[in-house]
Write a structure and sequence with these properties.
The chain is about 30% helix and about 15% strand. It is of the alpha/beta class. The protein is globular, with a radius of gyration of 19 Å.
């Protein structure tokens, strides 16, 4: 993998080394020295170097960061799901981390974002040039975090993920199996990405930056087939016996109805292991 001019391993920090951050950190272990920052550093994955700090409390960062960093991946999730929680996670935490890094130049800063910044609800395709005008505080705070990253003075990339699913994120599949998910027909379009592809996409772009091929400022990370939610549910029901829908079963998510294009990510050379929901969910169903 890429080495620096000084023949030392690249220094990579994953700030917010929780579920997704931990998967990203693990996927980068072969690339360099990987540090995982979280409140409880004992909970970072094996072989990742734990840093114990709370990014919303800047004094906890004092003296904790490595002297040199090449790539920083910012992957925080809110500790509370209100507006203040989102602001703390996506804006305040990043500002505090950038202050701690100071004027040390990075090769790249990667900010983990969400397709919830898109408010489109008309089945239209969205790509990196589509308008992002979120109508909920969640998307608004995430969008403010994106701008903080892009205006940081460091080379930066924003990755907007659609809904992440996989073996450690089985809620949707469990709801279908238990009859707690019963969308109307036709249901809104849904977009998703398998957790393995999500982590690998971040690693791929980080490796491009380390090899002197900086990624673009913005990517949508979603699989190759946006699909109406009722089609996914009906397909699952065809693969495995499911309970009949219960009274009050959920109709679906709150994400509007849009189709996320991953064309730019594909053009970067990234290859999906799970290009559509069938490949990902079939593997999960077989492991039940």
């Amino acid at each position: 993998m890429a080495m620096s001019d000084h023949e030392r391993a690249p220094q990579i920090l994953v700030a917010g080394c929780g579920k997704l951050g931990g998967e990203i950190a693990t996927s980068l272990l072969a690339t360099g020295d990987v540090y995982g920052l979280r409140r409880n550093p004992d909970r970072v994955p094996s072989r990742v170097k734990g840093i114990g700090a709370d990014l919303t409390q800047p004094d906890t960062l004092s003296g904790k960061l490595p002297d040199h960093l090449d790539v920083v991946i910012y992957c925080l999730t809110p500790s509370s799901y209100d507006e203040q929680g989102y602001h703390q996670a996506y804006v305040t935490g990043l500002e505090n981390l950038l202050s701690a890094i100071g004027n040390r130049p990075l090769k790249h800063l990667i900010f983990i974002s969400s397709t919830s910044v898109f408010a489109q609800d008309d089945d239209s395709w969205v790509n990196e040039s589509s308008s992002a005008a979120p109508d909920r505080f969640t998307g608004q705070q995430i969008l403010q975090g994106e701008q903080t990253a892009l205006n940081s003075g460091q080379p930066a990339t924003v990755i907007r993920f659609s809904g992440i699913y996989g073996p450690s994120r089985q809620r949707f599949l469990e709801e279908v199996l238990e009859g707690r998910m019963n969308p109307q027909t036709p249901a809104p379009f849904s977009n998703r990405i398998h957790e393995t592809d999500a982590a690998n996409a971040v690693a791929w772009l980080a490796q491009k930056a380390l090899s002197g091929h900086p990624p673009e400022p913005l990517y949508i990370a979603s699989d190759c087939e946006p699909v109406r939610l009722d089609e996914v549910v009906n397909w699952v029901r065809e693969q495995i016996p499911c309970k009949a829908p219960v009274e009050g079963a959920r109709k679906g998510g709150r994400a509007g109805s849009k189709r996320c294009s991953n064309q730019k990510l594909l053009e970067s050379g990234f290859t999906f292991r799970y290009p559509d929901f069938r490949k990902g969910y079939l593997e999960m169903i077989r492991q039940l």
